[in-house]
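2024-03-11 09:14:02 DEBUG pipeline.ingest accepted 1 chain
2024-03-11 09:14:02 DEBUG pipeline.ingest length=818
2024-03-11 09:14:03 DEBUG pipeline.predict start
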Amino acid sequence: MKTLAAPLGLAGLGSGRETDRSNAQFFDWRVAGIGLLIAVGYYIGAKIGFALTFNPHPVSVLWPPNSILLAGLLLTRKRAWWILLLAAFLAHWLVQLQSDVPPLMIFCWFISNCCEALIGATFIRYFIGRPVRFDRLRNVTLFCLGGGFLGPFLSSFLDSGFVALNHWGAGSYWEIWRIRFASNVLAALTLTPLIVSWATQRIAFWRNLPRGRFLEGSCLLLGLLVTNFVLVNQIASASDSALLYLPFPFLLWAAVRFGALGASTAVSAIAFSAIWSAAHGHGPFSAGLAEENALSIQIFLIVLSVPMLFLAAVIEERATGETELRESESRFRIVADSAPVLIWMADVDKLCTFFNKPWLDFTGRAVEPEMGNGWANGVHRDDLQQCLQTYTAAFDAREPFTIQYRLRRHDGEYRWISDHGVPRYDAEQRFAGYIGSCVDVTESINKERALKESEERMRLAAEAANLGMWEWNLESDEIWATPARRAVLGWPSSGKLTLEDFISSVHVDDRGRVREKLKEAAEQGKDYDTEYRVVLPTGGVQWIAARGKIQVDARGKPKRIMGVGIDITARKQAELEARQRHDDLGHLGRVALMGEMSASLAHELNQPLSAIVSNASAGQRFIARGNVDLNELRDLLADISADGWRAGEVLRGIRNMVKKGEITRQQVNLNDIVMNVVQLVTTDALLHSCELQTALDPDLPVVDADPIQIQQILLNLIVNAFDAMSDTPASIRKVVIATERDGSGSVCTSVRDYGSGISEEARQRVFEQFFTTKPEGLGMGLSIVRSMVESHAGSIAAENASGGGARFCFKLPTEAAV
């Protein structure tokens, strides 16, 4: 029964909280070294377990192998556990064969031993993770529950069952279970913390340990050894049981001063001494039977070890907390002193307890005068009352606050401070006061005031100039406009306005164009420039000239359009009236021109009318003679119809020239217009003894123009050409009308005469209003011609031609050029 202490275990379940490096090798020398140590420790531990028995009964009071294996599992990563189990199996097989145990029983006991270690290690690693340390009360509690109780408790059922099934040893099932459970609980509580604590202690700890601590530890160890010697060798079993507490002062000393490392070492020393002496008939635990003595020692040592572990954990946790608190306070002070803001703290009594170095540098005062309410002495008297009211109200409501006040600087100047305070709470979420930070915002406030004054001046200037400022945020689709502009358009004085709100106020005929312009500016990053009409709430219409500039973000993407809008209704009305007067004047010019051409028109109408009369008379004579030839009569009627159409065309041309109406533009071929005008002035040319010639480009592109105005332009130029050759011999009087392409994408139409030409002075002023070289002229014809040409986006020029005479040429853009 020496091996009844062999334990139980389950396969590792994996906690999901491993902290091993993911790229660690599956097998390395460190794991192999730990496996070798486990094998050696397991073997030696088994030998010690055999030695710690009470003859003549083979009862092991303390069975170390299972606790050694548990410690190894806690110190290594899970993927290497199989190596440790293999090393422990070899050591287990070797030591059990030396004890003449059957192979089947050896294998069964190893299963129960592994199960105990695996159950405890899996439980502890699942809740604690790695590394496992006994410096916190939670860790010690979980270790005692999982490794000290749960593992031995469950594995003892398996171990006792194996013993009963193999008929090995003596004793009942529950007696075996009790003996094994107590033995393994004691081993787990004493040896596992000892091994883990020493193994996880860093070398730097011993290297930096002061000499005083070495001396203190040596004195503690010497006192503990002396006490153990007296306890286990000099005190008889019949002595007073109160003497068993002689080691307690040294245990407390070890736990308080050296934590879990010292407590586990001291408890293990007492445990081995007490068990060894009792096994050899010495000490207070050697009076009864072997089973009774073993149970007494186990209960004593378990009761002794658990409180020491908990005490050491509490002390270490508190010491660590105090150290962390001191380090946290030190870090906070370092950070606060290096922060570019003024920081203060106050307790629940509303009195300030901390000011950082920038605060003291700013105020130029020491920390003592600032404490409590001393800081208020530096606040401007006009701001002090409001500052204290806000401060007190925030404290009572436990709410954050922000306040601006003037604080006296070290040079005596008062600076504007923005103070933001928030409540702070301790670890138990109890209100602990306030912490605040202050920033000098004097420059910001001055800039803000200057900006407001500038905006006010800009607003007054905009209102005086009848300007409306606006902004369209492309990301939020929100439009901002000045209050005056909102009022004019009937928009609410506040609230969000979208692009559709703006578009809805635009005249229905202009909405598509305005939307397209804005879309083009937003997508292509172009500046916005357009004119449109808006419908006022009163029903009136207002013309607006809008100009906007695009703004982009850091990535170059357009984010907003900012601009102005100005009322141009008066200008548009003036332009409309001027255009009307211009049209009226052009109409009068056409009527006057027709008056000048009356003889030519009479001649043009006389010919078709005379032909109609002649053909009609001939037809009547044919009918009167009674010998009607239907073919001849049909030819006479066809001639009458043709002459009638000819007269009608002349009349329609005259009506179009003199009628007053809306100007309409269409795509026209200038060659067709030239030929129509030539037909109109042919008779007038005969009256002036002038020859008409044309030189037309057959591949002339079309232009977008008003054909009536183009006819008027050509008629004016041709009539002027007739007048310019009044002193020219009839034999050389000639007017040439030509059309041709221009290299710049325009069509050039020219009228040339062979008169005396234009003087330099007249050429400079020939297109001015009321300038004329004719005694009876008004000086309006060429001025009207220039206005008509320019209204078609064209240009006109006059020059003296080579070979004599003058040439007037006007250019109109083609459809492709537009």
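2024-03-11 09:14:41 DEBUG pipeline.report The first strand starts at residue 342 and ends at 346.
2024-03-11 09:14:41 DEBUG pipeline.predict end
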